[in-house]
Design a protein that fits this description.
- The complex is a heterodimer of chains A (658) and B (75).
- Chain A is α+β, with helices and mostly antiparallel strands.
- Chain A folds into three domains: 7-204, Aldehyde ferredoxin oxidoreductase, N-terminal domain (Aldehyde Ferredoxin Oxidoreductase,  A, domain 1, 4-Layer Sandwich); 226-256 and 270-452, Orthogonal Bundle (Aldehyde Ferredoxin Oxidoreductase Protein, subunit A, domain 2); 466-655, Aldehyde Ferredoxin Oxidoreductase Protein, subunit A, domain 3 (Orthogonal Bundle), CATH 1.10.599.10.
- The longest helix of chain A has 21 residues, at 570-590.
- The mean pLDDT of chain A is 97.
- Chain B has a single domain, classed as 2-Layer Sandwich (Alpha-Beta Plaits), CATH 3.30.70.20.
- Chain B contains two helices and four strands, in the order E-H-E-E-H-E.
- In chain B, the strands form two sheets. A two-stranded antiparallel ribbon of chain B has the order 1-4. A two-stranded antiparallel sheet of chain B has the order 2-3.
- In chain B, a hairpin with a 2-residue loop joins strand 2 and strand 3 (40-47).
- The longest helix of chain B has 5 residues, at 19-23.
- The chains are: A alpha+beta (658), B alpha+beta (75).
- One iron/sulfur cluster binds at residues 73, 95, 267, 320-321, 324, 326-329, 543, 545 of chain A.
């Protein structure tokens, strides 16, 4: 594939050696690059039963097949490994500038195996790839370590750096990997894998050219998108009305497909924090550890506490990932907030706001801004950490945890000072925090309160309530890396118009919410299509929000064809997505992770149903729907294992012999 | 003797995507110029040191055609 480098770098940390491996073209044809290349490589090379924190696990940093071609919004990088959190397939995705930098060093991915006996970092440029001593950076937080490393490698090409903080060094199973001052590839415990390898950072300063088959065409497509997004401007001060929109969404008896062009409007103006007030009111955002409906969850008062206009007021400047005209990120100025010692932070994502705000019944925005920076510097996943802290609060409120056990912390709903203290303890593996640093599953196994422990197969779920979206429930439970909210959602599906590029993707229609509660084949093909498109995006290095713009605004098929010099249709690319997804599931099966054993916690299924709010009386039939979802993929309906004929028809057997 | 050319940025259409910055092989430009894109505060690319070798890779990479190579140095 012309837009890929055709090579990966393999680093053996035990011996300190680096090897360049050529990747045959048929691999790119079959799975593109990014997560697809990572899935192919890890399935082949990690032995069954490998200890996720041992030398046999492989940690991969993957770029995207379109990254660096001039195609906008393709600057995402994916980390892949066997997850220490779930024991199965692990991946995490992040923006920033690392993705093009991987390719400019001459590789589509960098894979690490083995374990170093002392802290090291990888330095890579056009000429060399070498491990260097990282002892002076070990123990330094992710933001400071990145700044130090950038300074140490200044004077030429701007180095792009991925780094772990204390959470990764401490092998916290809910730690991630950071770049660009605390943007984090957060999920699956990828930071712990990096920490276990004693790999502090990778520093990439290559400047090799990235090829593109039809640069003029890619440029024209990017320009068209860039112009549209450039023109968007939302009138000031509308943030307060988002909560009202949420009320409407919650009350509406129907699901309405929204236009994809809403995505850039909301995210250019406010970023993902635009969702918080809507989510509190609509039922999308889980409240009080997924335990109550909107009124008990704080209602309008809670929603308005997270009015994103408050965040816009302290936004110093927008932040754009590489190649992105939208810029949903931002840098916030915290210098006037007396309750934090930090001067600035990345604009928190909705996930972080919800997990430490309404999920914990905390209406103090400033405390969440502080926690955001704490976690970004430590490199700890805010979704997992938030769910874990809320479990502790609910256990404390119910007498399962005593003040003695919490090291004297009064873990009551809304007590944000205790929340902050607990997060600090988790980051430093201090006392009670040590037991929470590995996520809620392990904490609840030690202390009890399993009914309050919100995790799916070991991973804590993203901040979107499955009772509000039966399609999301499928992805959260049946996704090879469970608990993720970025694989598919009905609101996303409604915005994408996938039926216009894929012959078997059902059209998104206006329909009653009750219809989604009944298992159907249509829903199965919707969830399959959504997952395939998501895999395709992770193969090209694309951003989730470009997906959400829909196929008419973000012309994925045209972009890939122009960059690769191909002439395939949407069905072909959706099949690539299905292939990637199937390999990820095969990885799980190979490693003894049984998909059918992964269950959503009862609360996420509405068992018992909530007694108030938009999700009142909703109970899901997720298990029946999962069987149909697996069937649509050509996987065994009962076990979730890909059937031999599916593996055969997707050509995966042959691919693994390449 | 050929006159060395430097990038000259037209910020009106610039979307702060940073493609030009990452294309520069010597780290001569960065997104450090604070400005406005409509009502939004953004960082824009500018020359940040004297390392520019005039290769014009930034200009060819810009999808919005915001960069001209001219003989005037604007850093
Ligand atoms: S939309 Fe946001 S997350 Fe996506 S590439 Fe742009 S800045 Fe990054
Ligand atoms: S002309 Fe070349 S060296 Fe100069 S700023 Fe542009 S890319 Fe960098
Ligand atoms: S590539 Fe063009 S649009 Fe993007 S930041 Fe540079 S000048 Fe602006």
């Amino acid at each position: 594939m012309i837009s890929c480098m055709g090579k990966v770098l393999r680093v053996d940390l035990t011996t300190g050696t680096t090897t360049v491996e050529k990747i045959p073209d048929e691999v790119y044809e079959a799975v593109l690059s990014g997560k697809g290349l990572g899935a192919w490589y890890l399935y082949k090379n990690i032995p069954a039963g490998a200890d996720p924190l041992g030398p046999d696990n492989i940690l991969g940093f993957c770029s995207g097949a379109l990254t660096g071609t001039g195609a906008m919004m393709t600057g995402r990088w994916t980390v892949v490994c066997k997850s220490p959190l779930t024991g199965g397939w692990g991946d995490a995705n992040c923006g920033g500038y690392l993705s093009p930098a991987i390719k400019q060093c001459g590789y589509d991915a960098i894979f690490f195996s083995g374990i170093s006996d002392k802290p090291v970092y990888l330095y890579c440029d056009n000429k060399k790839a070498e491990l260097r001593d990282a002892s002076e950076y070990w123990g330094v937080d992710a933001v400071d370590a990145e700044n130090m490393l950038r300074e140490a490698h200044s004077g030429g090409k701007i180095p792009r750096i991925a780094v772990i903080g204390r959470a990764g060094e401490n092998l916290s199973l809910i730690s991630g990997i950071c770049n660009e001052g605390g943007r984090i590839a957060a999920r699956s415990g990828v930071g712990a894998v990096m920490g276990s390898k004693k790999l502090k950072a990778i520093v990439l300063a290559g400047s090799k050219p990235i090829k593109c088959a039809d640069h003029a065409k890619v440029k024209a497509l990017s320009k068209e998108l860039g112009r549209k997004i450039h023109k968007i401007s939302v009138p000031k001060g509308l943030g307060g009305s988002l909560a009202i929109g949420g009320i409407g969404m919650g009350k509406s008896p129907v699901t309405l497909p929204l236009d994809g062009s809403l995505t850039p409007m909301l995210f250019k103006e406010w970023g993902t924090p635009s969702n918080t007030p809507m989510a509190v009111m609509s039922g999308d955002g889980p409240l009080k550890n997924w335990g109550v409906g909107t009124p008990e969850g704080g209602g309008l008062k809670m929603a308005l506490a997270y009015n994103p206009e408050k965040i816009n007021k302290i936004e110093e400047v927008k932040y754009h990932c590489y190649s992105c005209p939208l810029g949903c990120g931002g840098r916030l100025d915290l210098s006037d907030i007396a309750s934090t010692e930090f001067y600035d932070t990345h604009k928190p994502e909705y996930e972080t706001l919800q997990a430490f705000g309404p999920l914990a019944m905390n209406s103090d925005l400033n405390s969440v801004l502080h926690i955001n920076e704490l976690l970004n510097r430590a490199g700890m996943d805010s979704i997992s950490a938030g769910n874990t802290v809320c479990w502790a609060i609910e256990c404390y409120e119910n007498g399962i945890l005593t003040k003695e056990q919490t090291d004297g912390l009064e873990l009551t709903w809304g007590n944000y000072e205790a929340e902050i203290a607990l997060v600090n303890k988790m980051i430093n593996r201090d006392g009670f925090g040590n037991d929470l640093a590995d996520g809620v599953k392990r904490a609840s196994e030690k202390y009890g309160g399993k009914e309050f422990a919100m995790h799916v197969g070991g991973q804590e779920p993203g901040m979107h309530d499955t009772r509000n979206d039966p399609q999301l429930a499928i992805h959260m439970a049946a996704e090879p890396a469970p608990g993720k909210h970025t694989i598919g959602m009905s609101i996303q599906y409604g915005a994408m118009s996938l039926c216009d590029i894929c012959s078997w993707a059902p059209p998104a229609t206006m329909h009653s919410k009750g219809e989604d509660l009944e298992p159907t084949d249509t829903m199965a093909y919707i969830s399959k299509a959504n997952a395939c498109y998501s895999m395709l995006f992770d193969g090209i290095g694309g951003c989730y929000y470009a997906e959400m713009m829909g196929v008419h605004m973000y012309k994925t098929v045209d972009f890939i064809n122009a960059a690769a010099g191909w002439d395939y249709d949407g069905d072909h690319y959706m099949e690539i997505g299905a292939r990637i997804q199937t390999i990820r599931q095969m990885f799980n099966v190979k490693h003894g992770y049984a998909p059918a054993d992964v269950k959503l916690p009862k609360r996420m299924l509405g068992k018992p149903p909530l007694s108030s709010g938009p999700l009142k009386n909703v109970t899901l039939k997720t298990e029946e729907q999962i069987a149909l979802h697996w069937k649509a993929f050509g996987w065994d309906e009962k076990t979730g294992e890909p059937l031999p004929e599916t593996v055969e028809s997707l050509g995966i057997g042959k691919l693994m012999e390449v | 003797m050929a006159v060395k050319k430097y990038p000259h940025f037209h910020y009106d259409n610039c979307v702060s995507c940073g493609i030009c910055v990452q294309a520069c092989p010597v780290g001569a430009i960065d997104l450090t110029r604070r400005g406005k894109s409509g009502k939004y505060k953004n960082n824009f690319p500018e020359i940040v040191n004297d390392r520019c070798i005039g290769c014009s890779m930034c200009a060819t990479s810009c999808p919005m055609d915001c960069i001209n190579m001219t003989a005037d140095y604007e850093g």
